[in-house]
Amino acid sequence: MSSGAHSRDPLAHPGHACSSCTHNTERAGSVSFAADGRGRYRKAEVTGPLSRMVNVRPLQPRDIDALYAISLATGLAGGDASSLYRDRKLMGHIYSAPYASLQPELCLVSEDDAGVAGFVAGTSDTRTWERRLEQEWWPQLRRQYPAPDQAHMAEWSHDQRRIFMIHNPKPIPAAVVQSYPSHLHMNLLPRLQGRGTGSHMFAAWLAMAATRGIGPLHVGVNRENLPAIGFWYRLGFVELDIPEDRAGRTVWMGRA
User: Fold this and answer.
1) Weakest-pLDDT range from 71-75, 115-119, 129-133, 160-164
2) Which of 28, 75, 196, 210 is most open to solvent, judged by the fewest CB atoms within 10 Å of its CB?
């Protein structure tokens, strides 16, 4: 499960919540939270009927490689996109690394005994975030990845389609951010899906974000990823009627 829309569409929206991971019906587990003396979130521990302990904890710098790997492993409408890309970092450059680099205080990861297997990240002000990406994130990547020739768009590889997104990021529709200015992005590897981990991560992220100006939230979900759409419905998100994107690959969902 996840939250921005990982898709094969070169005009998909980068840099926002993306629900791409396949998410099955979640079975109940239990979660415990720990907070410091000022009420700030520190750690959650998730247990479930199928697993050993899963820790939900703040992002650490050492987690960045795992975020890149998770983004790729869930980058095809929730499925594994690794066979489609020569550059294994392109998905992460768009969907996870910006959050880890520019706003790590709003990132959590889920970790079991095999390592980091999921993350959740977001921002309180999407428009400010888009401007920050334009100033601090996209320029270095544009120098690293020359823009593909649009005259040959029909022949582009998946790598070239993602590179196009780096050079031409599409802003979130105004109708979304006006009512739901904050956004969220979540991805889980298959081994953590269907066990309640996603719901626990969302609760932990909300607890952490409560003191950081998070307002009404939106997520963008690949229209083909029906399990992820169902997951967000169960967490209180509703589909938004966005005429400009009605025929696109992204379903926009909001939660007040």
Assistant:
1) 71-75
2) 28
Average pLDDT for 202-229: 93
pLDDT for 195 equals 84
Length of the chain: 256
**Mean pLDDT rounded to a whole number for the chain:** 84
CA atoms in the 13 A half-sphere facing the CB of 65: 2
* 20-58 pLDDT, tens digit each: 443 333 333 333 334 343 333 344 444 444 446 899 999
pLDDT of 173 higher than 90: yes
- What residue type is assigned to position 108 of the chain? L
Q: Given 3-state DSSP classes, what are the helix, strand and coil percentages for the chain, each rounded to the nearest 5?
A: 35, 25, 40
Q: What is the pLDDT of residue 32?
A: 39
Give whole-number Cα distances, 64 to 44, 129, 149, in Å: 20, 20, 31
Q: How far apart, in whole angstroms, are the C-alpha atoms of residue 105 and residue 124?
A: 12
Exposure of 170 in the CB half-sphere (CA atoms within 13 A)? 17
Q: What is the largest CA-CA distance in the chain?
A: 59
Residue type, 102: L
Q: Which H or E run includes 58?
A: strand 54-58
- Cβ(163)–Cβ(90) under 8 Å? yes
DSSP 5-29: ---S-TTSPPSS-EE-S--PPPPP-
Query: In this structure, are strands 41-47 and 30-35 parallel, antiparallel, or unpaired?
Result: antiparallel
Residue 193 DSSP one-character state? T
Q: 3-state class of 100 per DSSP?
A: helix
